[in-house]
Amino acid sequence: MTWQYNDLTRAGGGPPSAGNPAGYTVDADKTERVVHRGTDGHIHQLSFDGAWHHTDLTSTARGDPPESAGDPVAGSTSGAAAYVFFRGTDSHVHGLSFDGTWHHTDLTGTAQGDPPDSTDEPIGIILNDFDDPTVLYRGSDSGIHDMSEFESVWSDTGPSVLFAPDTPPEAAGGPTAVYRWAMDNGMNVVYRSTDDHLCLLSLSRHFGAQYKGDITAVTTGNPPAAAGNPAGDAQNDKREQHIVYRDGNGHLHELLGVYTGDVEWHHNDLSATSGAPNAAGDPAVRSWDVDKTLHVVYRGTDNHIHDLVRNGEWHHTDLSDTGAAPRAAGDPAVYSWDVDTTLHVVYRGIDDHIHEFCFTTG
């Protein structure tokens, strides 16, 4: 079981990157894909099917997509459909969808419900039970908005409708922690509010959309305020959900929610527990079913990419010590690929290339 390093820009081609990448996989054609915003303002994709290939999605997609003003997010359905979402220079949320051909849709301009402009990068999620793509973002009204597609029609639901009668607090950051929570058979969404607390929203097919409350306030162990956007994932076999964020001193903290008929929240200072370097950016979190581990990856103050892995106990690995990896210029993303049971961490280096650390179990 080893980490291996690869320069994806060199392997696949394409322009230098201007932001943080996102990774996803498509089961139908057994490909892994990494999307990023190039220095030309276009959305670019590096895809792997045995070899790496580059596609300029902005130039390829039908419908004249605008240049991007932020980092993209991406996902796929259980079929062959792929979706890439980004905030355009017009502050609209835009979607690129693939069904054999790439197509562009101005979601803000076409969605029912008169959605506001976006102030952050959108977060795209796929509700796989129904394969309906959903986009979450922070609007210019400081509310968390949900735009979803049903029968080729996009609709927006704002916070006052989505979570009435308990309207959630205004957001200071995007809804960056999004994960499946089997206990409610739906998705949990965590964001940072204007008081720097973390707030929990639930999107459930069975129970509807609910505001579950300020989890910073109910967590035992006196967790500090958040200085950045959270990340999170669930280990559903253990009935645990893990929210990780950076405080004002650069420590990474975990809010651990354990389901025992209800959810009890506990605090853990991961930086103190693991002895890892302080964080210079926001973390990414991935629960990996292959070996039942939880991974927290982040950019340290040394501009190395670090991995905190939990398998009963927390352990630290400096991934940048692997191979000839350059220092990081942005925050990493993490995703897994079921085809060959690998775990992937991708980031933008100081050379503006997209770089990858790949963990193999063989």
Walk me through the structure.
It is a single chain. This protein has 362 residues and is mainly beta. The chain has one domain (2-360): Fucose-specific lectin (Neuraminidase, 6 Propeller). Helix content is 7%, strand content 47%. The chain has 6 helices and 28 strands. The chain has helices at residues 8-12, 57-60, 107-110, 159-162, 215-218, 270-274; strands at residues 2-7, 22-26, 31-37, 43-48, 52-56, 73-76, 82-87, 93-98, 102-106, 123-127, 132-138, 144-150, 153-157, 177-181, 186-192, 198-204, 208-214, 231-235, 240-246, 252-259, 263-269, 284-288, 293-299, 305-310, 314-318, 333-337, 342-348, 354-360. Strands 1-28-27-26 form a 4-stranded antiparallel sheet. The protein has a 4-stranded antiparallel sheet with strand order 2-3-4-5. Strands 6-7-8-9 form a 4-stranded antiparallel sheet. A hairpin with a 3-residue loop joins strand 24 (305-310) and strand 25. It is globular, with a radius of gyration of 19 Å.
Q: Please state the average pLDDT score.
A: 92
Strands of the largest sheet, in order across it?
1-28-27-26
Distance between the termini: 6 Å
Which superfamily, in CATH terms, is the homologous superfamily? Answer: Fucose-specific lectin
What attributes characterize this protein structure?
362 residues; mainly beta; Neuraminidase; 4-stranded antiparallel sheet; 6 helices
